[in-house]
Amino acid sequence: MIMTIVLAFLIVLICIVILATLSFKGRIGREISGLLSAVEPEPRVVVTEEMISDLPPPVQRYMTYSGVLGKQMPRTVRLKQAGRIRQDDKSAWMKLEAEEHYSTDPPGFIWKVSIPNKRFPLALGRDAYADDHGSMLIKMLSLFPLAKATGSEIDQGAMMRYMNEMTWFPAAFLGENITWKAIDESSAEVTLTDSGKSVTAVMSFDQEGKPINFVAKRYRMVGKKYALETWSTPFTGYGEFEGLRLPVRGQGVWNLKDGNLVYVELEITELKYD
Q: Where would a tag sit more exposed on the chain, N or C end, judged by fewer CB atoms within 10 A?
């Protein structure tokens, strides 16, 4: 009798988790549809030599290296990632699989992450930047919130993340919402402006034009508070998608006073434009 009750309880629990997962995935799917439906139906822009002629020299090298000249600027981007993530240096690494959708005009993204994988997501999460606001929601078994955040600090962090990930669709760095400022022969300052708000970072490049690193001030959640810390994303591997040479492996690093915290490592496994 006890075994029957336990078995029935487990069956009910499994059904609840399955339904909750389907519901959460459905919500994310609707958010993705909303993001993509807001894309401006403007004529496709082709990148020309004239568009890069006034950029700082290392940025010109970057555009030439990536192969964007003569290519159309994408309106939407979809990619898949695999990697691992952890909360801090005392936490164990957890495998992840993720899918991300972007719009370039207006700028935005929806990131859907499954831990450890999409077949058996012990944790399912969504990070987003849309309508000039960021938001984050992660649930254990799609039922119990592990992280839920909105507000000005999340807006800044999500906007910074979007600009960082434009390295996977580099023609977007030539948009009217982007400004560049020369620093030296290997780096330049880049600023993204959206709805009157701006974020700024420093990008570094090698002599060939490969992007090497992206460094900025970004809000980090520490407990229930936020701290403005130095954040960087060194690129550790390169490959080719959509006829472009892009960084395909990299890390997310908090450069803290007591040392660097590598908290995520990602690899792009698939990338499609429009």
A: N
Phi-psi region of 78 (alpha: psi -120 to 50; beta: other; left: phi over 0): beta
pLDDT score recorded for residue 20: 80
Record: fold of 2-40+57-273: outer membrane lipoprotein receptor (LolB), chain A (2.50.20)
Secondary-structure percent of the chain, ordered helix, strand, coil, rounded to 5:
25, 50, 25
Rounded distance between C-alpha atoms, residue 163 and residue 171, angstroms: 12
pLDDT by residue (tens digit) across 106-150?
999 999 999 998 888 899 999 999 999 999 999 998 988 888 999
Sort 118 into a burial class: Cβ within 10 Å, 0-12 / 13-18 / 19+: middle
> Do 230 and 222 contact (CB within 8 A), yes or no?
no
**Structural domain boundaries in the chain:** 2-40+57-273
User: What six digits make up the tokens of 34?
Assistant: 């909303």
- Amino acid in the structure at residue 121: P
Report whether the peptide linkage leading into residue 43 is cis, meaning its omega lies within 30 degrees of zero: no
Cβ count within 10 A of residue 224: 6
